[in-house]
Amino acid sequence: MAFVVLLLAALSGLSGCAPAFQGDKPAPDAVNGVIDLTEWPWDEEGTVPLDGEWSFRWLERGGENPVFRDTTIDMPGTWGAAEPGDGQPLDGSGYGVYRLTILHRPQTEMMAIRLPNISTAYEFYIGDRLAQSRGHPDMDAKRTIPYQAPATVHFSTDGERTELKLIIANYDHRHGGVRTSIVMGTSEQIQRLQLRHAAQELLIMGCLLMIGFYHLGLYILRRKETANAMFALLCLCVAARTGLIGEGFIVRWLHGMSWASAIRLEYVAFVTAAWAGFAYFRSMYPLEIKRIWYKAATVCGALLVLVAVVTPPSVFTSALIVNQVYVLLFSARVLVGLFVSAHRKREGAVLALIGVAGLIVTIVNDILFYNGWSRSIDLLPFGLLFLIVMNSFIISLRFSLTYERAERMSSQLLEWNSSLEERIEERTEELRRSNVTLEEAKTELERLEQSRAQLISSISHDLRTPITLLRGYLEALRDDVISEPDQRDQAIRSMLGKVEGLNFLIQDLFDLSILEARKLELSLENIPLSYWKQRISEQYSLEMQSKGIVFRCELDVGSGGDAVVAADIRQMDRVFANLLYNAIRYTPEGGEIALSLRALPERGGVEIRVADSGPGIEPADVAHIFERYYRKDKSRTSGPEGSGLGLAIAKEIVELHGGRIVVRNSESGGCVFLITLPARA
Question: Where are the bilayer-spanning segments (predicted)?
Answer without folding.
Answer: 202-221, 233-255, 267-285, 292-310, 316-336, 348-370, 382-401
